[in-house]
Amino acid sequence: MIAILGTGKMGEALLSGLLRAGVEPGEIMVTARREERAQALRDRYAVRVVSNIEAAQTADTLILAVKPQDMGTLLAEVGSQVPAGRLVISVAAGITTSFVESRLSDEVPVVRVMSNTPVLVDEAMSVISAGAHASEIHLKQAEDLLKPVGKVLRIPESQQDAATALSGSGPAYFFYLVEAMVDAGILLGMPRAAALDMVTQSIVGAAIMLRDSGEHPVILREAVTSPAGTTISAIAELERHSVRAAFLAAIEAARDRSRELASG
Ligand SMILES: NC(=O)C1=CN([C@@H]2O[C@H](COP(=O)(O)OP(=O)(O)OC[C@H]3O[C@@H](n4cnc5c(N)ncnc54)[C@H](O)[C@@H]3O)[C@@H](O)[C@H]2O)C=CC1
Ligand SMILES: O=C(O)[C@@H]1CCC=N1
């Protein structure tokens, strides 16, 4: 039995992914703070909505998917209720395995996961790290759970904050880029719907080329960049506005914020 504690955007994305992967609704229980939310989850997925305590006491695998700021409260409620031999998976940004372990009364294995919203289309990037009591078996269990909804990579926990900044938040940077490019289309007089279509298909095509060609992004970009052509005129402007430096600083800021979140 799998329990998802805190079924918001990420918890629901994981829930729908598990169901698409063939886990039976009867094998999953979820928790929610508000009754309307609980009812929506029952209606949409036919899963049982239970209390945090019931989930903690009965599930073999607990997925903690509350906001980092709510993790202390949740663990204060359920920490003493999780029996040894279970697996706890935390998907919260910035929350370390030792933070979770120190709030569990038994030596329960903890795996820290950073996934991202493309879970919704089975294209997540999930990075996982083992806590002090987690072994190969537990990492494998977490991998098996996450593989149907995308790619899974094991990393040392010391790199989790960087991964949160890069792939956890990553989709947001691309949506932001799409917004900016669509605005550029509007500036040039394109209808909004056509601009969105053009940008979306360009970004999807480019992403698939990047993933499937095995080529380095520099090679792919150079193939589009003709001498004295249009692309280099755009790239010169991006360089003039230090867009590359802005990305370095932005992702570093996200990494720093991830580090801060564990301390509340
Ligand atoms: N949204 C994203 O792209 C990603 C989010 N995450 C992580 O996933 C976690 C959840 O984020 P979101 O889903 O975006 O937040 P959210 O606010 O949509 O979901 C959190 C849910 O937990 C519920 N909750 C809070 N305290 C509770 C408690 N004591 N008992 C039961 N339910 C409780 C809230 O009512 C809410 O429905 C965060 O820790 C975040 O760092 C990780 C990767 C990507
Ligand atoms: O913004 C956040 O805190 C979460 C973590 C990774 C993506 N979204």
Intertermini distance: 30 Å
Which second-level CATH architecture of the largest domain applies?
3-Layer(aba) Sandwich
Low-pLDDT windows of residues: none
Count the DSSP helices: 12
> From the alpha-carbon coordinates, what is the Rg to the nearest angstrom?
21 Å
Care to count the β-strands? Answer: 8
- Structural class, by secondary structure, is alpha/beta
Q: List cofactors, ions and other ligands.
A: 1,4-dihydronicotinamide adenine dinucleotide, (2S)-3,4-dihydro-2H-pyrrole-2-carboxylic acid
Shape: elongated
The fraction of residues assigned to DSSP E strands is: 5-15%
- The CATH superfamily of the largest domain is NAD(P)-binding Rossmann-like Domain
CATH T-level fold name of the largest domain: Rossmann fold
Major β-sheet, in short? 8 strands, mixed
Number of domains: 2
Give the oligomer, counting copies of the same chain as homo and different chains as hetero. Answer: single chain
Mean pLDDT value: 96
CATH top-level class of the largest domain: Alpha Beta
Helix content: 40-55%
Placed side by side, the strands forming the largest sheet appear as: 3-2-1-4-5-6-7-8
- Give the H and E element order: EHEHEHEHEHEEHEHHHHHH
Summarize the structure.
This protein has twelve helices and eight strands.
Could you please describe the fold and organization of this structure?
The protein is α/β, with parallel strands linked by helices and 264 residues long. The chain has 2 domains: 2-157, NAD(P)-binding Rossmann-like Domain (Rossmann fold, 3-Layer(aba) Sandwich), CATH 3.40.50; 170-261, Orthogonal Bundle (ProC C-terminal domain-like fold), CATH 1.10.3730. 55% of the residues lie in helices and 13% in strands. It is built from 12 helices and 8 strands. The chain has helices spanning 9-20, 35-45, 52-58, 68-78, 97-101, 136-146, 160-168, 170-187, 192-213, 217-224, 230-240, 243-261; strands spanning 2-5, 28-31, 48-49, 61-64, 87-90, 110-114, 124-130, 150-154. Strands 3-2-1-4-5-6-7-8 form an 8-stranded mixed β-sheet, sandwiched between helices. Helix 6 (136-146) links the parallel strand 7 (124-130) and strand 8 (150-154). Helix 7 crosses helix 12 (243-261) and helix 8 (170-187) packs across helix 9. It is elongated. The structure holds 1,4-dihydronicotinamide adenine dinucleotide and (2S)-3,4-dihydro-2H-pyrrole-2-carboxylic acid. (2S)-3,4-dihydro-2H-pyrrole-2-carboxylic acid is lined by residues 93, 164, 168-169.
